[in-house]
Design goal:
The structure holds two protein chains of two kinds. By secondary structure, chain A is mainly α. Chain A has seven helices and four strands, in the order αβαβαααααββ. Chain B is mainly beta. The chains are: A mainly alpha, B mainly beta.
């Protein structure tokens, strides 16, 4: 296992440590890449809306998409089926995680958009356009009465949706952050 | 405390009630103790053994050697249990059979897995890892280029944040240690320290978190504090000496020793340095345990100190009174296991178990203790301490802080997370071992 290559990189590393030149002597096999080239993979969305794409959607636009692409697992009108309910007026009772819903637990509305876009539908991930994801997000949020039935969701409006449980979280080990 | 005598007539110290024997009694003297115990019980009165004979396998040329060997056909029951055997469109769990294993290394084929969108069939030649965001220069790595960096190996456990969740039940679920605690495993992981790669990209001082993301279809992503990234995080390429198993993240995964399994993002393809956490679905919802006061913990991260006995454990049967070795696993996300105590009387008295060396930080530690079962009822428990002073809570202490469910949950459910209290196994006078709360 002790290849010449390894010997060289180990030696240069030791040298780096010995001279204190920590940065200069890493192996440097990483290939520089522009953020523009990474963009197709960069699907991270932050609670403040950073990363949200252009486009928009309304609850009524989302309803037929939901019926076609989501209801088979999540039930008619998102009431639950093989997969969890997405629209529910259930309350948290006790410590049972099965009671968690988007409305009663999720701290940020941006997570709804993020998860639909990155993971759904399970059998055809990444098949939805951004407008469709906005429309589905709007449909789910409106069904949960977190936005009005005619509200449009886009990069500006979505992060402003106030989620009811947001202020109930306690960071477990603050010193680890 | 009563004393028993070994073959040389030396006393075997009872270390605690209901038959627990001092851990030092076993060191190099196990056979003699077994003899002494047998004699004391009169069970060595069996007839003399039959004359030895040859079996067929000793009289014929054996089986062929295969390129990749698998266990004996007689070990066919030593397998993981599956939560989604029909491969339906949902997540799939496989659980490690702790009660059928010994030592501290989980064989790769038996390492637990949870996958949310099936297991991707990744071509290692085409897999890429990019590191970007708040860095001085974004970089792309391949498996080949990563393989040229200085490697480091460390033994560490990985445990799902929902492991042991059935223990939140108000009644003890009659399930094996595999069903209760099978979402934890331990391996030697080899790869490149993340800090090495971050040295190369440079770090913008505004970066406080990174978002790690997989190449699986749900692109599972988690936010990780830079504190952890620069401490002991690794891009793992090898598992127990061979390339990662597909279910464990082939060809590369993030390894965060001691942090909940889901954060150890598999099929790792992107790391983005950011100022704030992303509040991804798994950190917002799944691994945020609800508390009895109606609040919920967020960013739990740590797998806290835990232990459980693997033998004897639920579903096993002791074949008559006599000497047994209690054996189990202890581990902690906050360091080395310092001490494991065992009780055979439901926590009334305790004896210190022997720890198998080497005892490694954030790794499975095997503990053992000799026990003379007198044939009466017993309640076996283990309790672990780690080097940072953390103590495994009793069930009573744990429930006060974290609550319990109103009704018994489905054993495969995750009705709360991050359970690390004591597990009790009740031994009946018929030798049957059952899960109890004691």
């Amino acid at each position: 296992m002790f290849t010449p290559k390894r010997a060289i990189s180990t030696a240069s590393l030791l040298l780096a440590m010995a001279t204190g030149a920590a940065l200069a002597e890493t192996p440097n096999f990483g290939k520089p890449i522009d953020e523009a080239a990474i963009a197709p993979w960069d699907i991270s969305i932050m609670p403040d809306g950073t990363g949200l794409p252009k486009g928009s959607g309304t609850p009524s636009q989302g309803a037929p998409i939901f019926a076609e692409k989501c209801a088979a697992c999540h039930g008619d009108n998102g009431k639950g089926g093989e997969a969890i309910a997405l629209i529910s007026d259930r309350e948290l009772i006790g410590i049972n995680a099965a009671q968690k819903t988007i409305r009663n637990f999720w701290p940020y509305s941006t997570t709804v958009f993020d998860f639909i876009r990155r993971a759904m539908p399970f059998q055809m991930p990444h098949s939805l356009g951004d407008d469709e994801v906005y429309a589905l997000t709007a449909y789910i949020l409106a069904g949960n009465k977190l936005i009005g039935p005619n509200d449009t969701m886009d990069a500006q409006t979505l992060p402003k949706v106030k989620m009811p449980y947001r202020d109930n979280f306690i960071i477990r080990f603050p010193d680890r952050i | 405390m009563s004393k028993r005598r070994d073959m040389r007539g030396q006393a075997l110290e009872a270390a605690a009630g209901n038959g627990l024997i001092d851990r030092r009694a076993l060191l190099g003297r196990g056979a003699m103790i077994a003899g002494a115990m047998g004699a004391s019980l009169g069970s060595s009165a069996a007839a003399a053994a039959e004359p030895l004979t040859e079996e067929p396998w000793s009289l014929e040329f054996g089986n062929r050697t295969t390129p990749y060997q698998v266990p004996s056909k007689f070990e066919a029951k030593v397998v993981r249990t599956l939560s989604n055997p029909k491969h339906e469109l949902r997540n799939s769990h496989s659980r490690t059979p702790h009660h059928l294993l010994e030592g501290t290394t989980t064989p790769n084929g038996l390492h637990f897995t949870i996958n949310h969108g099936g297991i991707p069939d990744i071509d290692p030649e085409k897999h890429q890892l990019v590191i970007h965001g708040l860095v001085k220069r974004p970089l792309e790595f391949t498996l080949e280029t990563l393989s040229r960096y200085p490697m480091t190996s460390r033994v560490t456990f990985v445990e799902c944040g929902g492991n042991s969740a059935p223990m939140f039940s108000p009644e003890p679920l009659q399930e094996t240690v595999q069903a209760l605690h099978g979402l934890a495993s331990c391996a030697e992981w080899t790869g490149v320290k993340l800090s090495t790669l971050l040295e190369e990209t440079g770090i913008d001082p505004r970066a406080k978190w990174l978002i790690a993301e997989g190449a699986d279809s749900p692109h599972v992503s988690r936010s990780v504090p830079m504190k952890k990234a620069l401490d002991d995080a690794m891009i793992a390429l090898y598992q127990n000496g061979e390339r990662l198993m597909p279910g464990n993240g082939y060809p590369m995964r993030l390894l965060l020793p001691g942090y909940e399994g889901n954060m150890n993002v598999k099929f790792l393809r992107r790391i983005k340095l950011v100022e704030q956490p992303a509040f991804s679905m798994y950190e917002s919802r799944t691994y945020a345990p609800i508390l009895p006061n109606g609040k919920a913990y967020q960013f739990y991260f740590l797998q806290e100190v835990k232990s459980f006995i693997t033998f004897p454990s639920h579903g096993q049967t002791l074949k008559g009174p006599g000497l047994y070795e209690i054996s189990g696993i202890a581990y902690s996300g906050t360091g080395r296991i310092e001490k494991v105590m065992i009780s055979a009387d439901g926590g009334q008295s305790w004896a210190q178990a022997a720890l198998q060396e080497p005892v490694l930080s954030k790794a499975f530690t095997r503990f053992r203790l000799p026990w003379h079962w007198d044939g009466g009822p017993a309640a076996l428990q283990s309790r672990a301490w780690d080097e940072s002073g953390e103590v495994q809570p009793t069930r009573a202490e744990f429930i006060v802080a974290r609550g319990e469910l109103a009704k018994p949950p489905p054993v495969l459910g995750f009705n709360n997370q991050h359970y690390n209290s004591i597990t009790s196994w009740g031994v009946g006078s018929n030798g049957e071992v059952k899960h109890v709360y004691a």
